[in-house]
Design a protein that fits this description.
single chain, Arc Repressor Mutant, subunit A, extended
Length: 1278
C-alpha cells in the first residue's frame, strides 16, 4: 500500500479519473461536489495528488491518472478502503486487467526500481506464470530477483513435470548476478519433478538426505537439524522455496506443536519478501480452501492432470486436524486406489502419496515419512497388547468404556432433504438435535460441498443420492430420483416427512378420426419428471422414459394403419422399457390395465402443530387417499405395477359439495386448517356426522381429538387455617374422569390442547381454557389458594359446579349479599352512579378495598362522597387529593354531603391536634404534598375510610409518599383514578398494595406471575381475573349518551427552514451523545427527547437568543384568534411553563383577557382564576398540564388546545375532560398541535400503545405493547 493515507474525497476523485481517462476541473466539480460548494477544495485535492505522483495535469483544465494513481486505486479497492469503480462504464477494460497492466508497466519502466511506497506482495499477487516471459526479459535486476522467486514457486505448485522446468528458456535474459538463484531453483525443480531415479544436488542437501534414508534419531529432531544447517550456511534465516513447504509438512506430521511454532516464526520472518510464499503459509494456517474443500474433485482427476504442489498443500492443511478428525475421516469414504497404487513418476508425487497413506492409517513407502507409524497401526498394536493383559483386567476396560460413553452427549447432526413440488427443486439442510431430542429447522447447505466439507455426516442413503447430483443444482438428473425416493429423511417444503412413490405415466392410445392419437397421463409428464401431490405426506413422481419422450411428437397424430402397421406399432411400444400403455384401438393390446376407481368420499382429519387439518378425499382400502374432485383423471395406486384407475371427477365434485354442506365449516374449498373454536365445533360435531353417514378417517400419524367445555369442570373447596384447598376433576364421559392436577400441569398460557395419551389429545373450549388459566394463576403447586384471593375465585366459580365445606359455603353466602343503600342518598345519582355506589359499599362491607376507574367527568367524586356518607357513623375518613382540587372537594362536599364536616389545616400547629381529634362524620382533607409532614400523626390512628383521589399519584411504589400510604391503618380503602395504569404493570401493583395489601403478593412475585401480561394474552387474562372484582370502569360513551360530541383534531405544523435546520442539527447531536453513552442510555435519551420537544414548541426555549419565527406559536395564535372571533372559550394546556409565558406575552400584546394557572400559583390565586373563568366571560385559560390537568370542572369552555403532546395520552385526555364532562352542553373541540417530521409525530404514534396497556387490563383487550429504552431511542432516528 501507499505510504500516504488517502481520504474518501481522494478515492472518489481517483475513481472518476479512472473511468473518464481524462476529465476537466469543471466536470469533476459538478460530479463530485454539491451545488454551490467552493471550488477551492477540489483544487487543493488535485494539487496534493499531483505532488504524490498519482495524477497529472494534461492542460490547464484537464486532469488524468498516472500509472501509480491507477495502481493506488486498484489496491485501495482490494483492501476495502474505497468502493469499486463502476467498471461497467468502460466495458472493454476490467479492474483486474487494468491493475495487471499497471504492474507490468512498473516492472518494465525506465528506472526499473520497485516503488518505495508499495508492498511487493500486493504487486506480485496480480501476476501469474504466463506473465513470466515478458517480464523476466525486460525488467531490472531488482524486479527479476523478485519475479524469479515468485514464478519458480508457482511452477512447482502447478507441477507439470512432463513439460520440464517452465523457466528454463526464460532465465537466459536475466542478470548474471542472479545465476546462483537461477541454479538453485533449477536444481530444486529437477530434484522434485525430474526423474525419480535421477541424482541431483539441491541448494539444501540436508533436506535431500532426509528424503533418501532413515535414521534412529526422531524425525522431528532431524528436520530441525536440517533447518539449523540451512541457517548456518545461508544469509536468509528461512528458505524461500517450495522445498521449505515439504520440510514444514513433514515436521507437522512428526511433531504438530513444533510444526505450528516453526510455521509462525517462518511467517513472521518473510516480511515483504516472497509474497506468494507468505500467502501460502497464511492459507495453511487458515485451513487451505476451508478444510480442503474441493479435495474430492482434485483426487478424482487423472494423474496427468493433478497439480502435485497444490495437492501437497491441500493434504497438509487437512492433516492439521489429526488422523481421527471428521475432516480426515472423509478420505476413508473415497476410492483413492488410482492415486495410491500408481507408480510415482517423481519425488513430489511420491511425497504426496505417502502423506495420503498416513492420513488413511497406512504406512508410508518412502523416506522421511516412512519413519512415522500411522495412527491405525498404533491402535492395532495397542489392541494386541491389551490381548496379552490378564483376564482380571477386563473389568477395568469395561469401566473405562462406560466412562467414555457416559460423557456429555454432543449435539447430533443429520442431513435432511426437502423436496419442493415446483420445479421440482431439491434442498439440503443440516439439522441439530436439541437436548429434548427435537430437531431444529436446519441450515441450508450447498449440495456441491457435501462430498467434501460435510462428508462426515453422509450415510449410505446420502452417498447414493450425492453421487448422482450435478455440481450445479439446477434440474435434477433422472438418476437422482430413485435414491431420493428411497431416502429415509425426505421431507416436503414444510418439513413434514414425505413418501415419494416413483411410477411411469400411462400412454393411452385412442381412436381419433380416421387415425389414432396417443395421450400421456398425466399430461405434464411430457417434461420428463412431474410430481403429483396425492397428500401432504405422499407425492407421486411420474418419470417418463426417455425413449418415449423422443417418440411423443410422432405419436400425437398416428395415421390409419393397416394390420401390418399395427403389428409394427405394437412391437415398437412393447420395446420401450418401463412404459405402461393402454389401448382403446382394436388390434393393439397394451400392457396396462385401466379400471374404474372404487374410492369412497371421506373426511380425513389430521391434528398437527395446534391445527386441525381437514381434507375431503376419496379413499379405497389401504391405498393413499386422493383429493376429492381434484387431480388427475387417471392415476396409479397400489403395488400392481401396470394397474391404473380411471376417476369420475365430475361425480367426485358433487360428492365434495355434499360433504361441504354437511360439515360445520362454512368455507369453500376441499382443505381447511382449523384452530380455536372452529376446530372445537367440528370435533364436537363428529358423532352426529358419523351417525348421518359421513365417513371420517384420522391420519395414521395423527392424535385423536376429544372436546371439553367448562361444563366438564367441577371443584371441591375446603378451609385449611388461612387458606383453602382446591381439588377438581374434568369429566370426559361417565366412565372417564381426569384429575385437575393432570390438566393444570400440562396447560401453558396460549395452549388449548393437552395430551391425554399417545393417541388422544383433549381440545378445550375458550371458556374452559380461561377458567383453567386463571385457576392456575391463583393456585400454588399444592392447589391451595390464599384467603386474599378467595373473593376473585368465588367470582370465577359462579359458572362452575362447585362443592365446598361449611366454611366455604358460609363465605360464599356472605359474599353474595349486596349492601342496600338508603334510597334518599341515591336520589340525585344517575343509574351507573348508583351501581358504582352499591359496588363500593358491597366491597367495603366484605372488607375489601376498591378502585373506581370511571372515565373522566363521570362523577367519581360524587360516588365516593355517597359511600362516605353511608360509612360516616363508623369513624372519620381520610381523603388525600392533589393540591389543585382541594377547593373542588370542599365545594362538592358542601353540595352533595352537607352533613359531613371537612377538616382542613389552616395553621401547621393545629394539624396534629385536628387529626387526633377527628371523629365520626368528619373528613380530614389533605393534599399529597402534606403527607410527609403529617406521617406520624396519620399513622397514629385508625380511619374508617381512606380515599385517594387521582390515585395515579402513588404509581411509583418506591416513593416515600406511597410507602406512607401503604402503612396507614384503615378499614375501607378507595382509589379514584381515570388512569389507574399509565406506563407499566408496576403501577398497578402499587395501586393494589394500597387498596388490597397482599392480594398481588410481593413485587417480585407479581413480576414472576404476571410479568408477561403486557405481551401474552393468556397472562393478561390471568391478571384481569384477579383484579377485576376490585376495579370498576365505565366510559363516557357507554353511560353518558346525552353528553355532547368531542371532536379531536391533530393540527399539523410545518417548521420553517431555519427551524428545520436547527432541529436536524440538534437531533444528530443528541444521537451522537446517546450512542457514546455508557450505562446511562435512558437518561441521555430522555434528556435529548426533551430538548427536541422544546425546540418544536419554540427554538427560543432552547436558544434564548433566537430572534426568528416560532411556527408553533404563530399557528397557536392564529387558532386562538379564530376561536375568539367565533365566540368560543378556550383552555390552553402545555407541560412547559416557559412556553406558556411566551404565549402570554403574545396574548398581552393583542390585549386579550385571560386566566392563568401553574404550579407556582398560591391556593388563593388559583381559586380566584378558576372562579373568574367560571363566572366571567374570559375567553382564554392558560393552564400548566401538571397543575391543572386533573380535578377541575371547567365546562364553560368548549375548545381545548394542547400546545405540545405529552407521553401519556391519558394525561391529555384528563386535561381535555376538564371541559368535556357532566354539565357540558356544547360540543367540544380538542386541538393537538404537532410539528411534522419531528419527535412530536412519533410521540402521538405512541399514544395508541399507551392506551392499549390500560384498555388491556380494564376493558378486556388481549394484546398490549410495552415501551422500553429501544422504543424511546427509535424516536430519535430520522
Amino acid at each position: 500500500m501507499s505510504a500516504f493515507t488517502l481520504s474518501s474525497d481522494c478515492h472518489a476523485l481517483l475513481c472518476e479519473l479512472q473511468l473518464q481517462r481524462a476529465a476537466s476541473t469543471r466536470y469533476l466539480q459538478d460530479t463530485l461536489y454539491a451545488p454551490g460548494a467552493p471550488g477551492r477544495a477540489l483544487l487543493d485535492t488535485l494539487d496534493q495528488l499531483q505532488q504524490w505522483g498519482l495524477v497529472r495535469q494534461r492542460t490547464e483544465q484537464q486532469w488524468s491518472l498516472t500509472a501509480e494513481g491507477t495502481l493506488t486505486l486498484i489496491l485501495a479497492v482490494r483492501a476495502g478502503e474505497c468502493p469499486m469503480p463502476q467498471w461497467s462504464r468502460i466495458p472493454s477494460v476490467t479492474g483486474l486487467e487494468r491493475a495487471q497492466e499497471v504492474v507490468r508497466e512498473l516492472c518494465l519502466g525506465d528506472a526499473g526500481q520497485i516503488p518505495a511506497y508499495y508492498q511487493s506482495a500486493e504487486l506480485l499477487s496480480l501476476l501469474d506464470l504466463p506473465d513470466a516471459p515478458r517480464l523476466l526479459a525486460g525488467s531490472s535486476p531488482a524486479w527479476q530477483a523478485l519475479l524469479l522467486e515468485h514464478f519458480a514457486l508457482q511452477a512447482l505448485l502447478d507441477a507439470e513435470p512432463d513439460e520440464g522446468w517452465p523457466l528454463a528458456t526464460l532465465v537466459a535474459s536475466c542478470s548474471p548476478a542472479l545465476s546462483g538463484l537461477i541454479q538453485a531453483r533449477a536444481r530444486e525443480w529437477e530434484w522434485l519433478c525430474g526423474s525419480f531415479e535421477g541424482e541431483v544436488t539441491t541448494h539444501w542437501p540436508a533436506l535431500q538426505q532426509l528424503a533418501q534414508q532413515g535414521d534412529e534419531q526422531p524425525l522431528a529432531e532431524r528436520l530441525l537439524g536440517a533447518l539449523g544447517q540451512w541457517q548456518g550456511q545461508e544469509a536468509s534465516p528461512w528458505p524461500r522455496m517450495f522445498s521449505a513447504l515439504l520440510w514444514l509438512g513433514w515436521l507437522q506430521q512428526a511433531d504438530p506443536v513444533q510444526g505450528s511454532e516453526q510455521r509462525k516464526k517462518w511467517q513472521r520472518s518473510l516480511g515483504n519478501h516472497s509474497p506468494l510464499l507468505a500467502d501460502l503459509l497464511g492459507q495453511w494456517a487458515g485451513d487451505r480452501h476451508g478444510q480442503a474443500v474441493g479435495l474430492f474433485d482434485t483426487l478424482q482427476l487423472p494423474l496427468e492432470e493433478l497439480h502435485w504442489g497444490y495437492l501437497w498443500l491441500d493434504l497438509c492443511a487437512l492433516a492439521r486436524h489429526g488422523e481421527q478428525s471428521p475432516q480426515v475421516t472423509i478420505l476413508h469414504k473415497w476410492d483413492l486406489s488410482h492415486v495410491l497404487d500408481a507408480e510415482p513418476r517423481h519425488r513430489l508425487m511420491a511425497f504426496c502419496q505417502d502423506l495420503l497413506r498416513l492420513l488413511l492409517g497406512r504406512e508410508a513407502a518412502h523416506w522421511p515419512l516412512r519413519a512415522l507409524r500411522p495412527a491405525q497401526g498404533e491402535e492395532e498394536d495397542a489392541t494386541e497388547e491389551e490381548g496379552k493383559a490378564p483376564a482380571s483386567a477386563s473389568w477395568l476396560n469395561w469401566l473405562q468404556g462406560l466412562g467414555r460413553s457416559s460423557g456429555v452427549r454432543k449435539p447430533q447432526e443429520r442431513l435432511v432433504w426437502l423436496l419442493h413440488a415446483e420445479g421440482p427443486e431439491l434442498e439440503c439442510k443440516i439439522q441439530k438435535q436439541s437436548t429434548k431430542g427435537e430437531w431444529t429447522a436446519g441450515r441450508r447447505v450447498d449440495p456441491a460441498l457435501l462430498s467434501t466439507q460435510y462428508a462426515s455426516l453422509l450415510d449410505e442413503a446420502d452417498w447414493a443420492l450425492v453421487r448422482t447430483l450435478p455440481r450445479n443444482m439446477g434440474k435434477l438428473p433422472r438418476d437422482a430420483w430413485v435414491p431420493l425416493a428411497n431416502h429415509p429423511r425426505l421431507f416436503n417444503a414444510k418439513g413434514q416427512k414425505l413418501q415419494l412413490a416413483v411410477s411411469a405415466p400411462l400412454l393411452q392410445l385412442v381412436q381419433s378420426g380416421e387415425g389414432m392419437s396417443a395421450r400421456l397421463h398425466p399430461a405434464p409428464a411430457t417434461r420428463g419428471a412431474h410430481i403429483v401431490p396425492l397428500a401432504q405426506d405422499l407425492w407421486q413422481l411420474i418419470l417418463t422414459p426417455q425413449a418415449l419422450l423422443d417418440r411423443l411428437p410422432a405419436l400425437e397424430a398416428i395415421p390409419a394403419l393397416p394390420p401390418a402397421g399395427l403389428e409394427e406399432l405394437q412391437r415398437t411400444l412393447d420395446a420401450i422399457p418401463d412404459l405402461p400403455w393402454h389401448s382403446q384401438v382394436a388390434g393393439l393390446r397394451g400392457n396396462a390395465e385401466l379400471a374404474p376407481w372404487p374410492g369412497v368420499p371421506s373426511v380425513l382429519l389430521d391434528w398437527q402443530e395446534g391445527q386441525l387439518v381437514v381434507q375431503l378425499v376419496t379413499r379405497e382400502g389401504d391405498l393413499p387417499p386422493l383429493p376429492l374432485g381434484k387431480g388427475e383423471a387417471i392415476v396409479r395406486q397400489g403395488i400392481r405395477e401396470y394397474h391404473y384407475w380411471q376417476r369420475d371427477l365430475a361425480a367426485e365434485k358433487e360428492d365434495a359439495q355434499r360433504l361441504r354442506n354437511q360439515l360445520p365449516i362454512g368455507l369453500p374449498g376441499n382443505e381447511w386448517k382449523l384452530d380455536g373454536e372452529q376446530a372445537l365445533t367440528l370435533v364436537n360435531a363428529l358423532p352426529e356426522l358419523v351417525d348421518a353417514g359421513v365417513v371420517v378417517h384420522w391420519h395414521q400419524d395423527s392424535a385423536r381429538l376429544k372436546s371439553l367445555d367448562e361444563a366438564a369442570l367441577s371443584l371441591r373447596i375446603e378451609r385449611r387455617q388461612d387458606w383453602f384447598q382446591v381439588e377438581g376433576a374434568l369429566s370426559l364421559d361417565e366412565h372417564q374422569i381426569l384429575d385437575l392436577r393432570l390438566i393444570l400441569r400440562q396447560l401453558t398460557p396460549g395452549q388449548r390442547t393437552v395430551q391425554l395419551d399417545e393417541k388422544t389429545s383433549l381440545m378445550l373450549s375458550d371458556k374452559l381454557v380461561e377458567r383453567l388459566t386463571v385457576l392456575g394463576a391463583m393456585l400454588d403447586n399444592e392447589q391451595r389458594i390464599n384467603n386474599k384471593l378467595a373473593y376473585p375465585l368465588a367470582r370465577l366459580l359462579s359458572v362452575i359446579t362447585t362443592e365446598g365445606d361449611a366454611a366455604w359455603q358460609n363465605l360464599q353466602q356472605e359474599w353474595q349479599q349486596e349492601v342496600s343503600c338508603p334510597p334518599e342518598l341515591l336520589t340525585a345519582l344517575r343509574d351507573y352512579q348508583k351501581e358504582g355506589v352499591r359496588w363500593m359499599a358491597t366491597l367495603a362491607h366484605h372488607g375489601f378495598g376498591a378502585c373506581l376507574a370511571d372515565d373522566m367527568g363521570l362523577g367519581k367524586t360524587l360516588q365516593a362522597l355517597i359511600v362516605l356518607r353511608m360509612r360516616q357513623h363508623l369513624g372519620p375518613a381520610l381523603v388525600v387529593v392533589p393540591k389543585s382540587v382541594v377547593t373542588n372537594w370542599q365545594e362538592e362536599v358542601a353540595r352533595f354531603a352537607p352533613e359531613l364536616e371537612v377538616v382542613v389545616f389552616d395553621h401547621p400547629a393545629e394539624r396534629e391536634t385536628l387529626i387526633q381529634g377527628a371523629r365520626a362524620g368528619q373528613i380530614v382533607l389533605v393534599n399529597y404534598g402534606m403527607l410527609g409532614s403529617l406521617s406520624q400523626a396519620l399513622k397514629s390512628r385508625r380511619w374508617s375510610s381512606m380515599v385517594l383521589d387521582e390515585a395515579q399519584q402513588i404509581k411509583n411504589a418506591g416513593t416515600q409518599r406511597a410507602k406512607l400510604l401503604f402503612q396507614l391503618d384503615g378499614d375501607f380503602r378507595l382509589a379514584l383514578s381515570g388512569t389507574p395504569i399509565e406506563n407499566h404493570l408496576g403501577e398497578l401493583w402499587s395501586l393494589f398494595s394500597f387498596i388490597n395489601p397482599g392480594l398481588l403478593g410481593s413485587l417480585g412475585e407479581f413480576k414472576r406471575r404476571f410479568g408477561k401480561a403486557v405481551k401474552d394474552p393468556q397472562h393478561m387474562a390471568m391478571l384481569r381475573a384477579v383484579i377485576s372484582p376490585f376495579i370498576l370502569r365505565r366510559l363516557k360513551q357507554q353511560v353518558l349518551t346525552e353528553l355532547p360530541d368531542k371532536t379531536e383534531i391533530i393540527h399539523h405544523i410545518s417548521l420553517s427552514p431555519e427551524e428545520r435546520q436547527l432541529y436536524e442539527a440538534t437531533r444528530r447531536e443528541v444521537v451522537q451523545q446517546v450512542q457514546s453513552a455508557d450505562g446511562r442510555a435512558l437518561m441521555h435519551v430522555l434528556s435529548g427527547l426533551t430538548r427536541l420537544r422544546r425546540l418544536c414548541c419554540s427554538p427560543q426555549l432552547v436558544m434564548p437568543e433566537w430572534s426568528q419565527t416560532s411556527s408553533k406559536l404563530d399557528e397557536a395564535m392564529a387558532l386562538l384568534d379564530e376561536a375568539i372571533d367565533g365566540g368560543h372559550r378556550v383552555l390552553v394546556f402545555s407541560q412547559f411553563v416557559d412556553l406558556l409565558s411566551l404565549l402570554r406575552s403574545r396574548i398581552e400584546q393583542r390585549q386579550w383577557d385571560y386566566c392563568y394557572l401553574d404550579g407556582g400559583c398560591s391556593a388563593k390565586s388559583r381559586q380566584e382564576s378558576i372562579l373568574r373563568f367560571r363566572h366571567e366571560a374570559v375567553p382564554l385559560f392558560l393552564i400548566s398540564l401538571k397543575a391543572g390537568g386533573t380535578g377541575l370542572n371547567l365546562t364553560q369552555a368548549d375548545t381545548v388546545l394542547h400546545l405540545d403532546p405529552w407521553w401519556n395520552p391519558a394525561v391529555e385526555d384528563q386535561a381535555s375532560d376538564r371541559a368535556h364532562r357532566m354539565g357540558q352542553t356544547q360540543p367540544v373541540t380538542v386541538y393537538r398541535l404537532v410539528c411534522e417530521q419531528t419527535v412530536e409525530e412519533k410521540i402521538v404514534a405512541l399514544h395508541d400503545e399507551k392506551r392499549a396497556l390500560a384498555d388491556g387490563l380494564l376493558s378486556g383487550q388481549s394484546e398490549v405493547k410495552g415501551l422500553d429504552v429501544e422504543s424511546l431511542r427509535a424516536l430519535l432516528m430520522s
